[in-house]
């Protein structure tokens, strides 16, 4: 089972976007038959098989084995991946995105789409790649946003200056910074 399957064809998206198929797909995290899935969903094995067949045809589910039950060959299926990502290219950007500068939401959306596409390309590789993901939440005092952004820019420029040579392994660094809405736990 792959870690991520990048859904970049309309046929895949069409097969995936049926609530009943998503229910079936979730139950195929482990290898199972249509009979087993049908029992959980309180549906007939034939109805489940209809959805499984559509998911198999789209490459979202795989038949991993088969077994004989009362003289009938029963397929065992499993989801192709643990996670399914939709490519922004399925629809694409409608019109021109307004990108005023690197502090605009449009710039950040382009960056996120670029990173998502890069990660999708990495999934095609055969070897495990060392990656690093860092996420955290900072508190910037009122009126301190510009000072924070200046510090961040300076730190990154220093990092690029120290490691920005023309030789060696190429590593992409993408930094996203955006305001976080406060959650209200009532």
Automatic annotation (TrEMBL):
Signal peptide: none annotated. InterPro entries: ArsR-like_HTH, WH-like_DNA-bd_sf, WH_DNA-bd_sf. Pfam families: HTH_20 (PF12840). This is Helix-turn-helix domain-containing protein.
